[in-house]
């Protein structure tokens, strides 16, 4: 074999980067300079869904693809410790006009989150179940079932706003003509 025909040594071969699993290749590039510099534009967009005092400092500008950048801001909203406001910005090629694609609030790794949901059947503790009548005391005000009811038909009709069929003492009886 001649020198021209021999394969190149391993040290001279170009190092090929390994793909990172879970992160698409197009998300690892350099952010668009115009969109990355639009921090104030992104903050104004987030002010459309949040109060100005609820938006903290700018944390990052991450590329999401060609001419797509996500700006992330600290959340100062009560009850959302560690959460982050985000604004996804984009633009057409060779254009300086910026468009807001999406706004929102997302948890970060440091966020305070509610505990994982547990089905009702798994949440019930043995002390939650009680025996029938063990904690209930009979009410003395309720009539017993063996005693007759004390209310009359006139009392019930009077409560409902109806007059009873019996003649009242205040009105004279009408005579038929």
Question: Can you characterise this structure?
Answer:
This protein starts with 32 loop residues before the first helix and ends in a 17-residue tail after the last helix. The longest helix has 8 residues, at 39-46. It is α+β, with helices and mostly antiparallel strands and 177 residues long. A 4-stranded antiparallel beta sheet has the order 1-2-3-4, with helices on one face. 14% of the residues lie in helices and 20% in strands.
Write the layout of secondary structure elements.
Elements: H1 33-36, H2 39-46, E1 55-65, E2 68-75, E3 83-90, E4 99-107, H3 120-123, H4 153-160
Antiparallel strand pairs: 1-2, 2-3, 3-4
Features:
177 residues; alpha+beta; 4-stranded antiparallel sheet; 20% strand; elongated
